[in-house]
Structures are given as structure tokens and as C-alpha cells.
Amino acid sequence: MEVVVAGDEGSARLDRVLAQRSPELSRSRLKALILAGSVTVKDAVVCDPAYHVAKGDTIIIDVPEAAPAEPKGEEIALDIVFEDDDIIVINKPKGLVVHPAAGHETGTLVNALIAHCGASLSGIGGVRRPGIVHRLDKDTTGLMVVAKNDLAHQSLTAQFADHGRTGEMRRGYMAFAWGVPNRHRGTVDAPIDRHPHAREKMAVRQGGREAVTHWEILESFAGRDGKPVAALLACELETGRTHQIRVHLAHIGHPLLGDSVYGAHFKTKAGQLGAEGKDTLTALGRQALHAYLLALEHPRTGEFLHWEAPLPEDLLLLQRALEAAV
Q1: What is the C-alpha to C-alpha distance for residues 148 and 137, in angstroms, rounded to an integer?
Q2: What integer pLDDT is reported at residue 247 of this predicted model?
Q3: DSSP codes, 241-283
Q4: Which has the higher per-residue pLDDT, 38 or 120?
Q5: Is 259 a catalytic residue?
Q6: Closest by alpha carbon to 34, among 23, 21, 20, 50?
Q7: What is the chain's percent helix, strand, coil content, to nearest 5?
Q8: What is the pLDDT of residues 101-135, one digit of tens each?
Q9: Is beta strand 80-83 parallel, antiparallel or unpaired with respect to 87-92?
């Protein structure tokens, strides 16, 4: 930050000039910066807040970027599917945010992992995301793998970047979607980028990042009138974009049940469900998406590992209610 002393500021104290010209910084913050040697006047470091500046002096303030707060360990129960010295695989419940962010500084998966794994996570993948190589949305359930050391982090990062194109990695999801596609299986190959107007959303956009999702119908459900109203799809990712399955299924006209962001315009369809299905969907309170399959190569041994997590209780209840709609 650069400040040039104006004529009416000549002979004024350095700290007072900076306080007047830099209102975004508190007086105490400015004083600390001066004392720390972060302020120069005419290319010379000045550490005295009472130093008197002259008209035309150029003052430069070196304001370091705020270091992110280091997350603290918290005793949060984890459903651990697999763990060794290199990786840990967990079955994430709904409502659990993966890593700290604005509005979610505590109570995250990272806080739980720090408490569980201790110092082994330190420095791996950054202060705010130690060991994290992929993520699930807050209300998406299912399998996640976390690296416990640098070797594992590098290997998993490479595998997730490749997404099974040349290796054997697989990531599978079960998705309850509105409507029933007109064919048994298909692929959505459509680039994804930030929504042009709603910055918290993603959207299919030309020029966006490549995104490929493969889907297959596992089960279809009829509504009160006996006509198809919803389907259970198995989806596999060939890329890993933010909200990819949610965006892609909405793009082809089959948004997820319970998705208030990408399927809000389908809310009226709930009236086509049976009474039990409608009540169960209302109680669900989240998008009906579960990461049921994770397969990858072990970072150290090279062994191919495969895990599956069954539908959680709330999605099992939804499935049974949809099956009983007629």
C-alpha cells in the first residue's frame, strides 16, 4: 500500500497520517506494522510511530496477508470404514461440512480428523484442508478418503486428477432423481463453471471446465397416478467438479429429489408422490445423494482397494416410501 504525503499533512506524525489515509486498518494494527518494520518512508524503514513526515514523502506499508487460522481438533465421532498409516476412509454423515470456511469454522470433518489422527496431518494439503483430496457437499453422505502423509497425499491427488482415465479409480453415487430418463443408461458430457448471476451455484456453461458423468437407472418409481415420477440412478464420475452430479442431472431435466438449489422448480412435483413419499421427502431436508462406491490404488502398496457404503437410513426410508407410492 502506497501513500504520498499531501501538503496539509507535512510535519504530521507518521501514525496519524496513516490512520487518516488508511481507515481500513485500525490504529493498533498500524502501530504494530510500524514497530515491526513494515513501513518505509522515502525507501527507508521507519519504526517510530511519532516520526514526522514531510510534504511529498512516499510512504509504503507492507501489509502481510492474514494467515488462515489453524483448525483445532474436536472430538467428533467418525464412521471409519478403513484406516492404516497412510489413509483413512470414512462414511460421512449428512450435515457434516468437510473443511472450515466462513460460517463453519468448527465442527467440520477436518476438526474431527485432527483430533483422530493427531500431528500426522500437519502441513499436508494446506492449513485449512489437511489431508483432504476431494470433498462431499455438507448434505451429501458417503465415502471419502483422506491422506495421512505426504506420500499418500501426492498419490491420491494424482488419482483424483486422473479419475480412472488411465488407472482404476472409481467413484460411484446413488441419486434419487425426478422423472425417469427415456433410456437405461447414458452420459452427460457438459462443461461446468460458476453460474453467471448466482455465485454460490454452478452451471453448465460453454468455456467451463470439462465435466463427464455416467448414469444408469437402478429403479424407477410411479406416482399416485401410476405414471413414472422418479428414479434411483447409479452415477459414476469421470471428472470431479463442484456439484457435478447435481448440475448435470438438473441439466438433463432430472434434478435430485430434495435439491433446493438445482431442483427448486420441481418442488410442485412432490404432489405427484403418494402421501408417504411426500412426507418422507419433506422430512429428508437435503438432496437425495449418497457416495456409495470408492475404489482406488493404495498409495504405498499399489493394492487395489474397493469399498461400498449402503444407503443411509433417511434414503432407505425414501426408497421404501417411493416403492409404496401406488
Answers
A1: 21
A2: 97
A3: -TTHHHHHHHHTT-PBTT-TTTSGGGGGGGGGS-HHHHHHHHH
A4: 38
A5: no
A6: 50
A7: 25, 30, 45
A8: 767 778 999 999 999 987 777 567 777 778 899 99
A9: antiparallel
Between the alpha carbon of residue 217 and those of residues 42, 235, 276, the distances in Å are 71, 9, 23
Q: Check whether 326 has a pLDDT greater than 60.
A: no
**% of the chain surpassing 70 pLDDT:** 93
- Are 99 and 108 spatial neighbours (Cβ–Cβ below 8 Å)? yes
Query: Quick check: 7 pLDDT over 60?
Result: no
pTM of the predicted structure, to 2 decimals: 0.78
The DSSP symbol for 306 reads E
Determine the longest span between alpha carbons in the chain, in angstroms.
86
Catalytic option among 15, 137, 139, 314:
137
- How long is the chain? 326
Cα 73 to its chain centre, rounded Å, is 19
Q: Which residue has the cell 460458476?
A: 194
For residues 170-193, give the mean pLDDT.
Answer: 97
pLDDT value of residue 104: 75
Q: Which amino acid is at 277?
A: G
Cell of residue 218, nine digits:
437402478
- Is there a contact between 108 and 100 (Cβ–Cβ < 8 Å)? yes
What span, in angstroms and rounded, lies between the C-alpha atoms of 64 and 31? 14
**Closest C-alpha among 141, 137, 169 to residue 79:** 141
Measure the CA–CA gap between 299 and 203, rounded to whole angstroms.
33
Burial 164-188 (b: 16+ CB within 10 A, else e): beeeebebbbbbbbbbbbeeeeeeb
Cα distances (Å, whole numbers) of residue 214 to 233, 236, 262: 10, 5, 19
Whole-angstrom distance, CA of residue 225 vs CA of residue 318: 19
**DSSP code for 209:** B
* Residue 78: φ, ψ to 5°: -120, 140
CA 124 to chain centre: 17
Q: In this structure, are residues 209 and 249 in contact, taking their beta carbons and an 8 Å threshold?
A: no
